[in-house]
Amino acid sequence: MAKGKGKKKKQKRRSSGEGTIFWREDRQRWVAEIPIGVDSKTGKMKYKTVYGKSEQEVKEKKKKIELEMGLGLRIESTKTTFGEWLDLWLDTYKKDSLRPTTYSNYKRLIEVHLKPHLGGIPLKDLQANQLQRLFNQLFKKGRAQKYEGAPAGLSRRTVELIRTIANAALEQAVIEDLILKNPCQGTVLPKEEEEESKEVEPFTKEEVTKFLNSIKSDRLYAAYYLLAMTGARRGEILGLKWSDIELDGGKTWSDNDLKGGKMHIQRSLCEVQDKETGKLKREFQPPKTKKSNRVFPLLPEMVAILKSHRKRQLEEKLVFGKEYHDEDLIFCSENGQRLWPRNFNRSYARHLKNAGIPHKKLHALRHTFCTLLLEAGEDLKNVQELVGHSRISTTADIYSHVLEKRKKKAIEKLGNILAVK
């Protein structure tokens, strides 16, 4: 066959569906066309085209694609990036099966940590060493939002969750024949003992007292006070309604001799990402576990602080009148709207700094509550019930260091009792 523009060089005849190799005069290069399946819409055969400077080069490319096809790999996987697959996996396999808070957390970890570092790598080219380097880096200096005195790296638990997300997404890619092997399975996380310095440390009782005394004029002082005095989670406090408070003796808020009461924890205010629009929103969810749905006793001084907060809130309600958004929330914005949990955290960080107290996570108030009770000799079961852990083993594991100190004190007591010389 004569050479010319767009003409093909003479080639061997091949069986139907086997593909062809030929020379393109107009492009001055060799071409291979490999059948990759039948188009479901047209019913015609689809082809994958590859190019090379020599016949041998395109033969090798053709052979590689045919090998991948023989192993069941999809041709589309050559173009799909890790970031694109993470988005597809989250939207297709997790969107309807995860709690809104969990979905939002997955989305955030993917957007903040996985995609910026590895998102542009083709899915088929992603390697274990690339994932391993990322996990190591996140553990050492991966914190996105830094506060003065806060560690630079993410906690082991967070890095472990990021690894879990990557592993699950890649495992699904293996199932769908997009990759041969899950590269995440070849990665490891830091050993437990390396994490000790990153554990959330409790405040000292002096720090808690100093913190609360420094913010008594803040309109949300009662919220911080309850966090410190009940060990409740942030979302549980921000989700409280006045109907959740039961005053002892059938009293009402207008009575002057309030003896105490009970706080019913039965919802949590969470900041989640809307699965359809992708925008952040605030919504109520059931507590974290069944045990988290609990009743907490309120001392008279706790009720007194709530009553003072209620008085201020009623004054704000009068100012806004019909514009007040009333959801019966104890802690809300001045016009009654739900608070943004992240803004509450920012205010907390600012209060700590103004008080001259080294920064610790807001969750440290919960750890402080448990630690102080256990150090005072409180029963482990009672602490578990108060903070709403699903199992007593969870409480024991988290506060094992406190329990070890108590064991030593118990032995010292026995030594004093026996007084053996």
What would you say about this model in short?
The protein is of the alpha+beta class. The chain has helices at residues 55-70, 82-94, 100-118, 128-141, 156-175, 205-214, 221-230, 234-238, 300-320, 341-355, 364-375, 380-387, 392-398, 400-418, and strands at 20-24, 29-38, 45-52, 245-247, 261-265, 268-273, 280-285, 294-298.
Structural features, described:
The protein is an alpha+beta fold and 421 residues long. It has 3 domains: 51 residues, no CATH class; 117 residues, DNA polymerase, domain 1; 203 residues, Intergrase catalytic core (hpI Integrase, Chain A), CATH 1.10.443.10. 45% of the residues lie in helices and 11% in strands. The protein has 14 helices and 8 strands. It has a 3-stranded antiparallel β-sheet, covered by helices on one side. Strands 4-5-8 form a 3-stranded antiparallel β-sheet. It has a two-stranded antiparallel ribbon with strand order 6-7. α2 crosses α5. The relative contact order is 0.08. The N terminus is likely disordered.
